[in-house]
Amino acid sequence: MKHSYADYVPAIKAMSDETRLKIIDMLSCGEMCACEILEEFSISQSTLSYHMKILSESGLVNAVRDGAWMRYTLNKERIDELKDFIGCITSDKEDLCKSWKNKKPNNQCC
Amino acid sequence: MKHSYADYVPAIKAMSDETRLKIIDMLSCGEMCACEILEEFSISQSTLSYHMKILSESGLVNAVRDGAWMRYTLNKERIDELKDFIGCITSDKEDLCKSWKNKKPNNQCC
DNA sequence: TTGGCATATCGAGAACATTCGATATCATTG
DNA sequence: CAATGATATCGAATGTTCTCGATATGCCAA
Questions:
Q1: Which nucleotide is the nearest neighbour of B68, by CA and C1'?
Q2: Torsion, CA B63, CA B68, CA B69, CA B70, rounded to 10
Q3: A108 falls within a domain
C-alpha cells in the first residue's frame, strides 16, 4: 500500500485528545447534533465548536447542517483507512524493510 | 470492554507526528538502534532522543540498553491494545449508546 | 421582520510540543 | 583511567494547541 505519513497526521492528531476521543465514541452510536454532544461535557460552546472543527477537518467526522443544527456522524470510510494505515505501519513489510535493514552485517549498529 | 480515554491519549499523541510515524514503520521491520534510525532523518541526535522518549514512555516502543547502544522494538501487545481501543470506540456499543441516545424522542435535538 | 436559539469565529492567555546546541552521563576499548 | 562514541538531559527559542468570553452569523418561527 502506498501511503504518506503526513496524510494521516491530522486524523491521528484529531484523536489525540481526550474530549475528542469521547466524541468519536459517542458518534459511533449514530448521528448526534452539537448541543446533544455538548450536554455530555463541561466545556463552553465555543470550545466544542473548535473540537468539532478539528474532527471534521481531519475527515474523521462528517458535519452537515440541518436547519439551525449541525448533525455529526462518523466517517467510517476514513476511519477504516486510518485503521488500515496503522495496521500497515505496524506490520512487517518485505520491500520497505529491505531498505531499512540489511544495510549492515547482522547485529552491527553504528 | 472497559477503557479510559485518557489511558490511550499518550500513545495516540505519540503517533501524531510524522517523524514518529516513520520510526514506528521502521521498527515494524524489527529491532533497530538509535543511530540506525537517526541515519534516516535530518534531525539532531537530541531531537531523535526526545522522540524516542515519547515513543517509549507511551508504551508503543520498548527501549533496552545494550552496552553503549539503545535497541528499540515495537511493543506489539500495546499496539494491539491501541488498535482494539480504536476499534472499540469507532463501533456501535449497545450499552453505552443507550446512555447517550434514547434520551430524547427520535430526531429531536436540543 | 424581528427575536431567539444554534453554531462559528475572533482574539487573547495559558499550557504544551518541537527543535536545537551545549553539555552531561554511561559504556567500551585501549 | 583516559579517550572516544552513543545516548540523555538541559535551557532557550519558537510554534502549536486548548480554552474562554465576546461577538458574529445563520436559521426558524411568530
A1: C27
A2: 10
A3: no
| Domains in chain B, number | 1
Q: Model confidence over B51-86: pLDDT tens digits?
A: 999 999 999 999 999 999 999 999 999 999 999 999
User: Which runs of E-coded beta strand occur in chain A?
Assistant: 32-33, 61-66, 69-74
Q: How many CB pairs under 8 A join A and B?
A: 122
C24 C1' to B49 CA distance, Å: 14
Residue B53's domain is classified under what CATH number? Answer: 1.10.10.10
Q: Complex ipTM, two decimals? A: 0.92
Judge if pTM exceeds 0.90. Answer: yes
Which of A15, A83, A101 is nearest residue B30 as measured by Cβ atoms?
A: A101
Range list of β-strands (E), chain B:
32-33, 61-66, 69-74
